[in-house]
Amino acid sequence: MRFIYLSDYESLAEQLVKLHTYAAVPSVLLIDDLDNYLNDDAAGNDASAHIAKTCALIHHSMKSCARALKINVHVCAWSSSVLIDGFLHTIYFRNVWKLSEVEDGKAILLEGSTVGSPSKQSYKYLKFEDGMRVLQQVLCDPVETNDTQ
Questions:
Q1: Closest CA relative to residue 92, chosen from 67, 56, 46, 40
Q2: Cα–Cα distance list, 20 to 15, 26, 32, 36, 129 (Å)
Q3: What is the per-residue pLDDT across 88-126, written as a single tens digit (0 to 9) for each?
Q4: Contact 46/56 with Cβ under 8 angstroms?
Q5: What pLDDT does 111 receive?
Q6: Half-sphere exposure for 146 (CA within 13 Å, toward CB)
Q7: What's the rounded Cα separation, in Å, for the pair 49 and 52?
Q8: Which of 17, 30, 57, 135 has its CA 20 to 30 A from that of 75?
């Protein structure tokens, strides 16, 4: 496992371009605070184009890793705002999870959906004063099936 902390968009782009050439090619890419790179000064006047280019570069990099490894690879990117309310996440990210505090901050709700699927999954965690989180409830939308016999 290797952790790299990058200060800006240019650093991220540089690492993504050469990711498939590492001695240990990654099968999972975790990007913490994607907003930091999407809201970077490199965005210029067209934020949507910058977001699209960044997401495309992330996917291209991971496809290159998949070809090198000959297995499926995964991207997990955390975004607090930019991708949540826009349409771009449906183009570039198939599974989207939204994290929110509920019950006056006493619980955390993790809601997930998959593009093209009517079902959603939700996980509710209790949040304790010491910072511990405990899974309280798994909530799932019923999956409709059209079984014809």
A1: 56
A2: 9, 8, 20, 23, 43
A3: 666 777 777 777 788 888 888 887 777 666 667 788 888
A4: no
A5: 79
A6: 0
A7: 5
A8: 135
